[in-house]
Structure formats: structure tokens, C-alpha cells
Amino acid sequence: MTLARHTGAALLVAVVLLILTVRLSPFRDFQIAEVAAYATAIAGLTYLIGLSGQVSIGHGAFMAIGAYIAAVIGLHQHWPLELIFLASTVAAAVAGGIVGVAAARLRGPYLAGATLMLAVALPSLANRYAGLLGGDQGLSFSVTTPAFLGVTFPPTRWLAWIACIGALITLVLLANLGRSRIGRSWRALRDNEIAAALSGLNVARLQILAFVISSACAGLGGALLAAVSAIVSPGAFTLTLSIGLITGAILGGLGSLAGAVWGAVVLVFVPTYVQDVATSHGLSSAASSNVPIAAYGVVLIAVMLLFPTGIQGGLRRLLGPVAPAASTPFNALRRRGPASEHQEEGTT
Amino acid sequence: MKRTHRANLALTAGTAIVAMVIAACGSSATSTPGASSSPSSGSSSAAALTASAPGITPTQILIGSHQPLTGVAAPGYSEIAPASKAYFDYVNSRGGIYGRKIVYKYLNDVYNPTNTSNVVHQLVLQDGVYAIFNGLGTPTHLAVAQYLNSQKVPDVFIASGCECWNAPAKWPDSFGWQLDYVREGKILGNYVKQHFKGKKIGYFYQDDEFGQDGVKGLNYEIPKSQVVAKESYNPANVNVGPQVAALKAAGAQVVVSFSVPAFTALLQLTSLKLQFKPQLVVSDVGSDPTTLGGLLAAFGKNKKLSALTQGIITDGYLPSLGDASNSWIALFKKVHDQYIPKLPFDGNVAYGLAVGYTFVQAMLKAGRNPTRQDLINAIQAGLPQGPSVAPYAYSATDHNGITGAYMAVIKNGALVPKGPVLVTDTSPTGAITPDTATQPAAPASGVPSP
Hints:
The structure holds 2 protein chains of 2 kinds.
Chain A: H1 2-23, H2 26-50, H3 59-76, H4 81-103, H5 108-121, H6 125-128, H7 130-133, E1 139-140, H8 155-179, H9 181-191, H10 193-198, H11 203-229, E2 231-232, H12 239-252, H13 257-280, H14 285-288, H15 291-306, H16 310-319, H17 338-347
Antiparallel strand pairs in A: 1-2
Helix pairs in contact in A: 1-8, 2-8, 2-11, 2-12, 2-13, 3-4, 3-5, 3-11, 4-11, 8-11, 9-11, 12-13, 12-16, 13-15, 13-16
Chain B: H1 2-13, H2 16-35, E1 60-67, H3 74-77, H4 80-93, E2 101-108, H5 113-126, E3 131-133, H6 138-150, E4 155-158, E5 174-176, H7 181-195, E6 201-206, H8 209-221, E7 227-233, H9 241-249, E8 254-258, H10 261-273, E9 279-282, H11 289-300, E10 313-316, H12 327-339, H13 347-366, H14 372-380, E11 404-411, E12 414-423, E13 433-434
Parallel strand pairs in B: 1-2, 1-3, 3-4, 4-5, 6-7, 6-8, 8-9
Antiparallel strand pairs in B: 10-11, 11-12, 12-13
Helix pairs in contact in B: 1-2, 4-13, 5-6, 7-8, 10-11, 12-13, 13-14
């Protein structure tokens, strides 16, 4: 029942996206593709943090795994694209499982520290194994537009389609998962681990599962991002990316899939938009190149002050009286603000 | 942005919303083409000037670039694009290129290839630039070279000495500019071979295309038996203690360094700490005295440390900044003082001005109403020697830029040339010969003649 509703909604969104990508300019298509890639990764992370209550500051590392797997396979094998993306997802999931086993033993700042280390250390593997992974300059991963679309078909539209399909499948699966027994169990252990354990839930297994699923999403997001930017290199998977993912998840609204998309939109559009505004107002390059970073911070502060539950939470509050709560499946996914979670971590 | 909002609305309120959504996206679609609409030709004042290519209108030439304006690569390198822009402003104030003004839009990619891809797509698709000019960095530019060539966007005078840009069959629209690292390695290696006979040589190099190409060139010249240690560093790790200790343990008397300025400074400061005093031979990329001196003082927290640049052997492919009598340096100083007086007058600024000059040369040769291919053809037909001390290599089969440099030693914060300009090729056995022709002087107007 839920599956049917989510799939139906996804198909609707797919039709809207199809119309958008055809009608908008090639650069907007490129940005839509970027948003879709980031949304895929953030969606997994927002579940990990918002639903299962585990923090990861290292999800950029799983994106790197997905991206590098895609590039290495793309370079040496002639696999179909969907198979390459599947391999990326699986590889990142396996890595997530390994990290998850360790993560399930760690709490709060220790978990954050461990995942932080992952984000810092993993990309340098590319330099360690430069022969296979291309070192600092990375590997190229180009997606060719299929011939049946014709030579005049904009390549960025094809990228947007690929990325949006990947994102939509991920979002549908996650939406169902969130409404399932597993989703409810995650919420239970997020709210109170001891109570959840007393109710018969296997806390460690659920936490590892959350890590596996969110890493799989990050892996797919990384592979999609590699396809969009046509290159995979360590410089693309810095700590800044991992922090950006968390920022996106929090800005959008922790635990909310729609919020994940909002977060991705902010990550992609705000810097570009602000730089355009800054340069068009004749600011010196030293100033205008730093303005996007500052604006990003201002947006972050403003959203947190105005909508402590993220953009999606704020929207829901504004639209609340119009839309009955029962008809918004995402509403159920998110009940508590991030602040209360931090308090919990502190007191246990 | 509307998309997500819509995604949620669709979930909430169902199909009734869709009609509204489609209506809304119709309106946003109508607004976008306006941003990139090509101007109509036939303005009465400039009848002969047409909108001959994307980015070219009867009044302007729009070009774009990706540059590290913030982040790790920004110190020094962030001066290059403003310097090029200053030269374009100078040319614009003297009538521009056949009456068109050059508009140079450079965007910050923070030296991150994903951002590079993003900003270059923006420049090509949204802003509709005529060409990408002087995109900075090897890993960053590799992210977009294939894309630019597939879109037939001229990708000219890339700010990286990677020999990879010289691939006319694979990337017909890409051109290098600065002395490539293989040639530079050969010229430095040749000097070391002649002047440090029998001495123990150590290498210190960045572990990527930049350092590896340089080492390739060095190996072509320096006898294997003399090289006692080859130590590489990763730019993400600022601790070079182990490498310097290994060089010291091997007893290296001369250290040849293919490093960026920050790592030349780290090499020197770490050597000082370990009381290791080899003769340094540093590639042009990592030896700009102003940048290096500033970094030494900043890292060592002592202003006197900037004197460590004294005595470094290096090479230069642009005239020495200390040579005030040189017509090119005089021109650079004039443009600098008029347009970018707040920036230091250093090697990065000279680089930006010089590469800007080369672009103007190429555009003038491309003709009054150039297509994109006209610019490619103009460069492939060869460009006359400009601000560089050696000629360009450009031809239909060679997309490398400057072919030679002079050896120099740093004295009191400036390069003092030692010996003639040396030119060579990128082959293992190609001879290194003095360039007997004297460098043509800068035009009095400061603008190349068509």
C-alpha cells in the first residue's frame, strides 16, 4: 500500500522532472543532476542521523568509494551503466558494514571522531595506489549519451536523467524503509536505546544496518556525482564535502527525505547564485570569491534560527493547516529537533 | 528549487497540483533562454563586426576561466586572473580587439575538480563564453578538458605545465602555454650535470603529473649514478621531515626540487631544522622569490627567514622582474601600477599579464569576425614570440607553449640570469641548445599588432 503510494508519487515527480529537464537550459539540467547526486547521498545520511541517531562526519568517504569503484570499472570493463552504479552501491555498502560494526560500539563524539578520521584518511589512498587510482589527478569517468537520442541531444540532460532516476529509486526505497518495521525500530532506539533493547530490539544490528544503508546511498551518490563531473579525484572528496553533506541534512531537516532534497538544493544553488550576485555587483574578486562562503554560513544560521527543524520542518509548519498531517508520509519520519538529540547524547 | 517543493506538494495534495506545476515550469523555462540569448548582429555603428561565434558580439568577447581564488592553492595563484584581467582592461582602453572589448569572467573552483566541472559548465552553458582561457591546475583542468573538446570550446593557454595538454589528436582544442615540466626538467638537469659533476644529487618532487614530468626531464639529463635519493611528497601532508631526513642521510649535496612554493618553503625550513645545507635547484613553479620569501617568513614566523631564498638556482621563461630596463617588465609594471596596484608585483602577476598578452596575440590573428575554429587555426599556425624569452612551439601537431628558459640564481629577491636562453624539446635525446635570437622588444603601445 505504502509502496504503491510512494511509487506513484515518484512517477509523478519523474514526469515533472522530465518536463523540467526538457524545458530548462542545459546548465540548469547540469545543476539538477548535481542536486540529484547530492540528494541521494544526503538522503542516506539524514536517515542515519535523524532516524537511527548515529552521527557520521565521514560520509564523503563513502561517496569517494562509490565514485572510485565506478571510475575503475568504467575504465577497465565495458559494463552497462546501471551495473556500474549497482557495483558502486554494493561496494560502499560493504565498506559501510565494516565501519558500522565499529560504529555500533561508539557513541556521540567518539563516533563523530572515528568517522571524521575516515573522511580525512580515505582519499589519500588514491595517492598511495596511484597506479590504479590515478593519484592526485584522479580518473576520468565519462558517460556517453546513447546514440538513439540523437547527436543534438544535450549531454547534460542525459546526465540529469540518470542522476534523477538514481535519486528517485533511492528516495522511494528509503521512504518505504522509513515506514517499515525497521524504520520504527530505528526511531525507537534513537529515542531511547535501553528502552528499545528492553523491547526486544537488537540495537547493534539495527545500528549497523543503518550504517550499511546510508553508506550504500552515499556510494550511489558518489558514483552519480562522478558521472556528472566526469572525473574522480581525491580533491573532490575532502572533509569539506563530508561537512557539506551534514550541513545539507541539517538544513533540510534531519530525518526527512524531502529535507534531503532541500539540503542538496541549497548546497548546489546558493554558492552559484551568491557568486553571480557578488560579481554582478562589481565586488572585487577577493571579496566576491569569499562572499559565497560567508553567505553559506549566513543561510545556515538563518535557517537554524527561523526553522530549528530545518527547511522541511519550517515548510511543514507554514503549510501545516492546509495539509492534514496524515496525508504527508514524510511528516511521520521526523518528530524531534536535532537539539534534543544532542542533549540525549550528552546525558547518557 | 521548485522541484523539491513540488515533490512534497505532489505527495501531499495529489494530482491536482500537477497542472500548476507544469504551468510554473513553463514560466521558468521562458525566463532562462533570455540569459544566454545571442545578440542580434547588424548594429549600425559597427557594421563589419558580427556575432561570429558564441560569446562574441559586435561589442565584446566573453571568455571564462576557473581559478583557485580561495583555498590551499590560492596564495600567489589567486593573483594570476586579476593580472590577466588588468591586461585585458589595458587593451580595452586602447580600442580592444578590432573594436571589441574582452570581458573576462573567472570563477572560483577552490582547486577542487568537482567545482571546476561545475563552474566550467556554468561558463559554457549559461554564460556562453567564447573560450576557456588559462584554466588553472592539472587535476582541476583534467576534469573539464574532455568536456570542452567535446563541445568544441577553445581551451587555450592552460595554466599548468603538464605535458598532457599536448594531445592534438585527442584534444584538438586544448593548448598549453607555460614551459612544460619535461622541458624544464631537462634544462635544470642539464645545468646540474654540467655544474655539479660528481656531486651527490637528491630529488624532491610533488607526487603527481607536475613532479613526475619534471623528474622525467631530469632523468633524461642527470647520470643515474649521481642520483642518491628520490623523495616525493603529497601536497595534502605538510610534514616533509621524513623526506628531508632521507635526503640528508643519502648525503645529497644538491637537491633538485619540483615543488609548489609552499613545499619549497617547507623543504627549506625542515632542512634548516635538520642542519642540512644542500645547494637547492628549484623549478620555476616553486621559486618565485616574492611568494617564496613571504611563505618562509609566514611559516617560520620570522621575517628574516625570507632571506633563505638567497642563492637558490632556478630557471625563468619570462624576463626577470628585477630587470627594469627590459621592455616587457616596463610594460608589466605600467599595467600593474595602473590597474592592480594593490597586488604585489611578483612572478604570478607577470605570469597573468604575459598569458593575457598571448591571448590578445591569438585573437588578433584569428581575424575580425572569428569563429571558434578560427582561434584554434590561428594558434596552430604559430604565434610570434611575445613576453616569453623563448619561442612558442605551437603548430598543428604540437600544442605545447613556451619552449625554453634561462638558468638563474636568486639574489636579493630577484632572478639574476646565468647564461643564455636554452631551448629544447620533450624527447629523451633532444638537444638543449642556446637560443641565439634576441627576444623581440615589447611594442611601444603595449598591444600586439595584428
